[in-house]
Design goal:
alpha/beta; 8 strands
Length: 189
């Protein structure tokens, strides 16, 4: 009788494990581009990029209020969010600066770009249907170490709370950030 009960419990556990939902993965995306070809005449640096520690979680996080984080059950970032932010910003910047190659930090000492953009993201969150980014960035002349431009960037955008909607809205906020960075780059080129 004991053997029957033990076998029943083991089979119940195995059946229960097989019913767990599959993990879903989401990416940030750059803005779509048209077909274009341009000769690369300059290299721009992007980084280092610092993000708040709570953004280093592989699962997508929703803020239920300003002091309460909720980790989603089966919604994960397809790449570390910090790397996704760098990738999306690089593509968005190259969409604006078609003659530029964006090289992400760290770069080699013998190929340090003349200009680089450094970014700190303090918040990237969804609270009560509003996605928000709070960040600061600097445009640096790497030869002289001079700060050419620096900005504090805060934007809100309405968003649904599904993982797909969050990823899409965060992507839109990063596109707006890249647009602002592009204006500073254009003024110094």
């Amino acid at each position: 009788m004991r053997v029957f009960i033990i076998l029943f419990l083991i089979s119940s556990l195995l059946v229960g494990c097989q019913q767990s939902p599959r993990k879903q993965y989401y990416l940030l995306n750059a803005t779509p581009t048209t077909n274009q070809t341009a000769e690369i005449t300059q290299t721009l640096g992007l980084g280092p990029i610092e993000v708040a520690d709570y953004l280093r979680n592989p699962q997508i996080i929703i803020n239920r209020n300003t002091n309460h984080l909720q980790i989603t059950d089966n919604a994960y970032w397809g790449e570390p969010l910090q790397k996704g932010i760098a990738r999306v910003l690089a593509v968005n910047l190259m969409n604006h600066q078609t003659n530029s190659l964006i090289e992400t930090f760290p770069w080699r000492n013998d190929s340090t770009p003349n200009l680089s953009l450094r970014l700190t993201i303090y918040d990237l969150q969804l609270i009560n249907g509003e996605a928000a980014i709070n960040a600061s960035w600097k445009l640096i002349d790497n030869k002289t170490k001079a700060v050419l431009s620096q900005q504090h960037f805060v934007r809100n955008k309405s968003s649904g709370d599904s993982a797909a909607e969050i990823a899409a809205t965060y992507s839109e906020l990063l596109a707006e950030l890249a647009g602002e960075m592009n204006q500073a780059l254009a003024a110094h080129n």
